[in-house]
Write a structure and sequence with these properties.
Shape: globular
Largest sheet: 8 strands, mixed
Number of helices: 9
CATH architecture: 3-Layer(aba) Sandwich
CATH superfamily: Vaccinia Virus protein VP39
CATH topology: Rossmann fold
Distance between the termini: 37 Å
Radius of gyration: 17 Å
């Protein structure tokens, strides 16, 4: 798909997320979708910022404490401050990053704006998470015999079929060597009040939402066979929070699970 095949009349999660973050790279359909979802989940904008902050903290851990130098970020989203390669290459300039997204607008912006350090490399792959084999075949700058950090932040919950989504994630992880990491966030209604959960469920039934939340036991299934990094599975705002941050959302406001785990 090329940028001239972009369908601006159909909302896309990356552009809706950009809208919630206050960006300008979105269209009327994305804003309408974002506003409809925010009616069911009023803290959507807070959750979007918290999710981005989790990504930055997790990549900081991976590039720093864990010593990872290769990153496969699927569901990249539109560029904003401190993307995966910026955080990683600030710590380790030789880091190599492959970004994957299925929206041609995301890829066009990424190629224009996400520039690498001279010591490292970044690449961009227009592909869908539902095609893990094709993704793995196209990550030329990554050496799959060496540890890779697989990043699936706020993307798997767009797959409605839970068993299929678990299989996709395991296919990706199984292709990576020991010492690799899985970093994930995923929407959940576990933290919500009964009224908020009922609103979310109704938005799914009515087709206003394309975000399929998972329970804690379901989220755990993605990490079968992996060693969870402290603090394990938690609300994203409670995973190694930055005490100097301006925002400290509650699990109700940022209703996503987050975790980082190592493949032994």
């Amino acid at each position: 798909m090329t940028i001239d095949k972009l369908d601006t009349g159909v909302p896309h999660p990356a552009r809706r997320y950009n809208y919630w973050l206050g960006g300008k790279d979105n269209f009327a359909a994305d804003r309408e979708s974002g506003d409809l979802l925010a009616k069911s989940y009023p803290a959507a904008r807070v959750a979007a910022r918290a999710n981005r902050a989790f990504l930055q903290r997790a990549v900081g851990f991976l590039a720093g404490e864990a010593g990872i130098r290769q990153f496969l970020d699927i569901g990249t989203g539109l560029p904003s401050a401190d993307n995966t390669h910026q955080v990683a290459q600030r710590i380790a300039p030789t880091s190599r990053i492959v970004y994957v997204d299925n929206d041609p607008m995301v890829m066009a912006h990424a190629r224009a704006l996400l520039t690498s350090t001279t010591e490292g490399q970044t690449r961009y792959l227009e592909q869908d998470l539902r095609n893990p084999a094709q993704i793995l075949e196209s990550v030329e700058i990554l050496d799959l015999s060496q540890p890779v950090a697989l990043i699936l932040v706020a993307v798997v919950h767009f797959l409605p079929d839970h068993p299929q989504s678990v299989e996709i994630v395991h296919t990706l992880i199984d292709a990576l060597p020991p010492g690799s990491y899985l970093t994930m966030t995923m929407a959940t209604t576990d933290f919500l009040t009964p009224d908020l959960k009922a609103n979310w469920d109704e938005s799914l039934r009515s087709g206003r939402s394309d975000v399929y939340p998972r329970t804690h036991p379901q989220f755990e299934e993605f990490f079968t066979g992996l060693d969870l990094i402290t603090p394990g599975i938690s609300a994203i705002s409670e995973w190694r929070p930055n005490p100097d941050s301006d925002e400290h959302p509650t699990p109700v406001e940022a209703s996503l699970f987050g975790a980082v785990a190592r493949k032994p």
